[in-house]
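Tutorial handout. Part one gives the primary structure; part two gives the three-dimensional structure as tokens.
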Amino acid sequence: MKTEETDLIERLTAGDESAFKSLFDLYKSKIYNTAAGFLTNESEAEDITQEVFIQVFKSIRHFKENSKLSTWIYRITISKCLDLLRKKKAKKRFAFITDIFEKEAKDKDETFCKL
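Part two.
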């Protein structure tokens, strides 16, 4: 039996633009709200929402239908959010380490100048 979701997936796989519009209308709020729950920045949540739709567009042919489409999209959203949070955390660590080395270099320069 063909469901609405199955029909939508078939149309998406075929590259039907109206199917992508339907998908966007169906999931934009859910994706944005999920991303906003993970991230503290509205523009980051908007960026993640766009990235999710791009990923869905690129990967729909690989969707195996072992789960609902909404579950698959939710997992993509969570993965994108976690990736962004990891990048931000790594960037903070790098900035912290850079600050330490810059302070040490500055202290050495000041000590050298006093001699």
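Part three, for discussion. DSSP finds four helices and no strands in the chain. The two ends are 86 Å apart (CA to CA).
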